[in-house]
């Protein structure tokens, strides 16, 4: 027999010996190798998944609006020249916080978010992403309830950190799920609908927190949002999980490791080999994480996008926290929570959706996304700057509304770039590092820094103008991205399929129950 035919015969013999053995002898469940496709589609249709993630995202950002609202955040205790003092209200009044300490509460949850985001992103390679979301939302629910029961500044600060840990699991994984399931011609529009929930949630939080804080007590606002999130935390564990796209190369490595050396191996030897491989994989996770990080950091397109996003988020974070208080002091708004909430809801929804639909209509690409990012941010900066220069309340409302419209038009394009400038297996880490970066260098320092600035100059109009000018820096950074060579790495064929050992039955990602078994195999 010629040598080449002998090798083919030996390879087929090995395959028969391995796969002829009962799955239980190999330490695998019988469903983990093959599973017949179901007769009916999974509950997780793409549209339902999008709606589910949008609602969860909105509740996440309702929490941001709640703690910034005047009804919950409250006001500091003040005394006049005659020594007559008025008691403070809300969190700031109850715990007697300075503006700097008050700003720290806005940034406290970011600590948990920053630490947990890369961890959850790395765990997606060894655990079901949807189960990780369930764990995170459970932590979020308990932490939000803890905020309502806080008895000191440090206790509520720790609870805010745990809220960030819970949010980390969702923020870094939801966008890749949506990008996987969205129709090709509507990917940016679907991302826009998801990120539209950011301004909408913050605005609803302003209104909800202002109403509950003024009519009942600021603590009830946190308990209410915890009850809203509880069903979704249970949902993450109760339903069959989904998985993300991963590299075909990883699947082939797994397949080859099962086949090679299977001849003349007993079941005990196979189990020992499997344990050895698991230990080896755990030890290699750190080196793999370092390699993935290096791949992101040397990517010029990704770096420019994140630098622009940091400057942008520095402004947005301070706007969302200090906006109602600045509006109350500059224009003497009696209902600042309602006013800022209404403007943010309308302009946030219209701006975010417009940015996504326009990019899709232009046949979405990274190059066109950078053009839209720089142009919209520059226009938004101009209108917001002019708004704070005006003395008229009505003039401020008109110009600030136009500014917010253009500023929020960047939400879908900036995340489109983060998802499409890296290969599919790096998307969870890309979103996690993006989240970590924009918070640790953006809105984490911005709220307390603007608090310190205001404590020193005691002029809300000047503080707002200084803050708004940073948007011009964001526009300039994103304009640099227009000149960079950029390819859509998400179209890399070597990383475009779901990891599976069995033959693909042609079922879409979100249809059928075979996904989980393929992931386990």
UniProtKB/TrEMBL annotation:
SUPFAM superfamilies: MFS general substrate transporter (SSF103473). Residues 49-487 form the Major facilitator superfamily (MFS) profile domain. CDD domains: MFS_spinster_like. The chain crosses the membrane at residues 104-123, 130-155, 161-178, 190-208, 220-239, 301-322, 338-359, 366-388, 394-414, 426-442, 462-484. Gene3D superfamilies: MFS general substrate transporter like domains. GO terms for molecular function: transmembrane transporter activity. Keywords: Membrane, Transmembrane, Transmembrane helix, Transport. GO terms for cellular component: membrane. It is found in: Membrane. It is a multi-pass membrane protein. The keyword Ubl conjugation does not apply. Its main location: membrane. Belongs to the major facilitator superfamily. Spinster (TC 2.A.1.49) family. This is Probable sphingolipid transporter spinster homolog 2 isoform X2. It comes from Gossypium hirsutum.
């Amino acid at each position: 027999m010629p040598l080449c035919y002998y090798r083919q015969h030996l390879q087929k013999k090995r395959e028969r010996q391995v796969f002829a053995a009962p799955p239980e002898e190999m330490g695998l469940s019988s469903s983990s190798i093959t599973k017949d496709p179901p007769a009916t589609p999974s509950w997780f249709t793409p549209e339902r998944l999008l709606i589910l993630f949008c609602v969860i995202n909105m509740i996440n950002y309702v929490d941001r609006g709640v703690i910034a609202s005047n009804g919950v955040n409250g006001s500091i205790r003040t005394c006049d020249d005659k020594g007559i003092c008025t008691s403070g209200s809300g969190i700031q009044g109850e715990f007697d916080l300075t503006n700097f300490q008050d700003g720290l509460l806005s940034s406290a949850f970011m600590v948990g978010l920053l630490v947990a985001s890369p961890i959850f992103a790395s765990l997606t390679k060894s655990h079901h992403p949807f189960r990780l979301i369930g764990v995170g939302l459970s932590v979020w629910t308990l932490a939000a309830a803890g905020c309502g029961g806080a008895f000191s500044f440090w206790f509520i600060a720790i609870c805010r950190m745990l809220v960030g840990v819970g949010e980390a699991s969702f923020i870094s994984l939801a966008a890749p799920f949506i990008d996987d399931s969205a129709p090709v011609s509507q990917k940016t529009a679907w991302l826009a609908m998801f990120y539209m929930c950011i301004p909408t949630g913050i605005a609803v939080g302003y209104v909800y927190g202002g109403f509950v804080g003024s009519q009942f007590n600021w603590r009830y606002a946190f308990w209410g949002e915890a009850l809203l999130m509880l069903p979704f935390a249970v949902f993450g564990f109760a339903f069959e999980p989904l998985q993300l796209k991963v590299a075909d190369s990883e699947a082939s490595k797994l397949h080859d490791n099962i086949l090679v050396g299977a001849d003349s191996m007993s079941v005990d030897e196979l189990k020992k080999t499997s344990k050895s491989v698991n230990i080896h994989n755990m030890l290699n996770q750190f080196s793999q994480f370092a390699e993935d990080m290096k791949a992101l950091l040397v990517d010029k397109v990704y770096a420019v996008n994140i630098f622009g996003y940091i400057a942008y988020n520095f402004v947005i974070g301070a706007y969302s926290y200090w906006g109602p208080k600045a509006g109350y002091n500059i224009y003497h708004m009696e209902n600042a929570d309602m006013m800022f909430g209404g403007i943010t809801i309308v302009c946030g929804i219209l701006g975010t959706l417009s940015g996504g639909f326009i990019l899709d209509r232009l046949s979405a690409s990274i190059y066109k996304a950078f053009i839209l990012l720089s142009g919209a941010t520059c226009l938004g900066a101009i209108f917001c700057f002019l708004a704070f220069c005006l003395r008229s309340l009505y003039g401020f409302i008109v110009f600030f509304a136009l500014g917010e419209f253009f500023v929020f038009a960047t939400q879908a394009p900036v995340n489109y770039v983060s998802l499409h400038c890296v290969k599919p297996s790096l998307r969870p880490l890309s979103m996690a590092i993006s989240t970590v970066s924009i918070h640790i260098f953006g809105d984490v320092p911005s709220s307390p820094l603007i608090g310190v600035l205001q404590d020193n100059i005691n002029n809300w109009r000047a503080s707002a103008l200084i803050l708004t000018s940073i948007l011009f820096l964001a526009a300039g950074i994103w304009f640099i991205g227009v000149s960079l060579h950029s390819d859509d790495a998400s179209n890399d064929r070597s990383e475009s399929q779901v990891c599976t050992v069995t033959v693909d039955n042609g079922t879409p990602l979100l249809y059928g129950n075979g996904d989980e078994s393929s992931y386990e195999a």
